[in-house]
Amino acid sequence: MEGFELRLLHFADLHLGVESGGHLHAETGLNQRIVDVCERFDELCEIVEAEGVHAVLFAGDAFKNQHPTPTLQSLFASRVRRLHRAGAAIFLLIGNHDLPRMGGLAHPFSIYEALEVEGVVIGDRARVYRLPLGSQAPAAELQVAALPHFSRHQALAQAPEAVRDPEAWVEEQVARTVKGLTADLDPAVPSVFVGHCHVNQAALGEAQNMFAISDVEVSLSTLISGRPLPYYALGHVHKRQVLSDDPFVAYSGSLERVDFSEGERVDVAADGAVRRREAEAKGFYRADLVGGRADLVGGGSEGWRLAAPPELRRVRARSFVTIRMETITHDDPMADLRARIERVREAGVDLTDALVRITGTIDPDDRARLNPTAARRLLPEAYAVRIAFEAQDAPAARDPRFAKQMSEIEALDRYLETRTDWRDDRADLARLGRDLITEAGA
């Protein structure tokens, strides 16, 4: 073995197949957004090759949905092969976007198990997996305590008919499952946790917060109950964040931006004042585990731990920029729009190759005076521009079931509540609807 450190890499939430906002990529014939995700994945592969990473931990949601096309499957598999050729073992966890809607159907990773692909282990059940490591690693294998995504409906399907408090029962089962994952681990063998779940202490991005990403939440205390592991690699929440330093618990976030809520927001007032909320960096975590040598781990030969705080490695994710404007002037809407875009540039906002969305309010009578095609030409450096102005004093929804104006997702949830005949399928229908709304608004 070349070094004593067990080198790990953690990433999640590729959502390969999301195409919103992208145009045809001339060289490949693919949508540019698919190319963007593949390029981010390639950046990750380069790090694995350059640094001799021993194990790559993917925390779920490889594809846009549970039925990726053969092209998408091939794009993903070619990069998995590249990781394996670099000497890395790969653990692929099932996320909610990877789960088939009906029991008994194969998930997108089933092909790796059917072909017995060397160096790839699939986590599709809540249990401990043994990930065989290459000959250059300082250990023969890595123990992975895995928690794939699950829904409230799936959990309750196993509940006894006489259960009185379903919510309490689900919470108890989650805690028992998580604690049981670490009960039989060998402390002399390196171990990590990989989960695709919603930890309720996590901060959500705007879109995920609005869409209520899970109907089952896990508390941080529940997640680290039992024997703590040195690294908890999480997926499902797109906003990168560290929930705990010791043990280290973190969401790596999505590798490429999925929608505008993950990008920069620029507010431009009528007087030209600019206020910015910068986008969060996208990337993955690199970490090293050490164990078995007193000089490296502070005494004792048993147990593995982090050699140092994990590092965020940034990738060159495409910029998403939302420019929001106060009411556009009635005198000359196009001139006002042009002036405010110039103020955005003067504020240092980089719009080169960015997906740009311009929003705000405008007098209904001025809509025809704001030419969308001409407006897009005001940003020639951008990759794509979307104009989405709202009319001032827009009337409230007229449907008698809705008492006020509401977002699309609020309307969806309200409508599903009225359909008592869909009660058993409500969670799945809500998730499908949110997927459609996310894609349409991305």
Written account of the structure:
By secondary structure, this protein is α/β, with parallel strands linked by helices. 28% of the residues lie in helices and 23% in strands. It contains twelve helices and 20 strands. The strands form four sheets. Strands 1, 2, 3, 4, 15, 16 and 17 form a seven-stranded mixed β-sheet that branches. α6 (206-211) links the parallel β8 and β9 (217-218). α1 (32-51) runs parallel beside α2 and α11 runs antiparallel to α12. Mean pLDDT is 83; it is low at 294-301.
Key attributes of the depicted protein:
6-stranded mixed sheet, 442 residues, alpha/beta, 28% helix, single chain
Briefly say what this structure is.
With 442 residues, the chain is of the alpha/beta class. Helices cover 28% and strands 23% of the residues.
Number of helices: 12
The SS-based structural class is alpha/beta
Question: Considering DSSP H and I runs of 4 or more, what fraction of the residues is helical?
Answer: 25-40%
Q: Uncertain runs with pLDDT below 50, 5 residues or more?
A: 294-301
The rounded distance between the terminal residues' Cα atoms is 46 Å
Total number of β-strand segments?
20
Q: What's the gyration radius in Å?
A: 24 Å
Task: Tell me the strand percentage band.
Answer: 15-25%
Shape: globular
Mean pLDDT: 83
**Largest sheet geometry:** 7 strands, mixed
